[in-house]
Amino acid sequence: MDSEMIRFDEFLEQDAFDFVNQASHLPNEVNSTLLNINKLNSQSSTTVWQSEVMSVLRPLKLEGLIDSNLARPDPTDFQYSKWRFWGPVIARWLLNQLDEPIQQLVKSHTPYLTYADDVFNTIKSVNLGNHRLYIERELAKWNNLKRTDYGKAQDFILAYQNQYNRLKMEGEEGSCGLALARLLNELESDCIRVPFIRSEVDAMAKEVDYPLFNYYCRLLIRETREALAAGTGGGFDTGRGGGDGGGQGSSSGTTREVSYRAWRRGEGRQPR
User: Could you give the 3-state DSSP secondary structure of residue 40?
Assistant: First the structure.
């Protein structure tokens, strides 16, 4: 899922090794077959593609080869021969992870690409236009998400959460607090917990962060699923039962059982 993806820059920040140069920690020169990933095309995310590249290279300790912030090794470096071996191997592999039009564009820009960092940087450069268009499309999808376009509330929440995660992957997600407020507005007539979540958030001495946003998404999904299973449809009026006082009291009790604060203290069970 999109939320499980790690951006390329986050991969670099999580390095478990101290890199002296691109030859540091390289494996021995052996013939091997690297796994293929989803090919980068004009409609896909360069950020996601970069993360998939890292997911293949990092377990093999080959990620330093595409990091242009690291110096290339001096010929006197005892690992220089490994670098000379693996650089072209990863360069060819990177080219094979591109859709044909992008591959040809990369080759036309720099026809004599030999090493992995050259290829990697050229790919990012020539695909900038496509990536900007991708971001624009994803932002438009986000801005146009409406509850009325989905038959079930849970389907809307999942689509909303997934789209937010796509934008987060690109660093374009905006405020978690605003995202939650918009979600609650859209679900006003679907979920009984909406006013209680608003009250709880307003009473918190912290901004809504990403874990809290996801927590409330799971909570709302669980409510809509339980309402469907019970045959009530998950609507606010349906869930109230009799008078407003009794309905709200019952809902408030349920909300307290699974509130974010109670969950963090271990007093409530986390929504699935």
Answer: strand
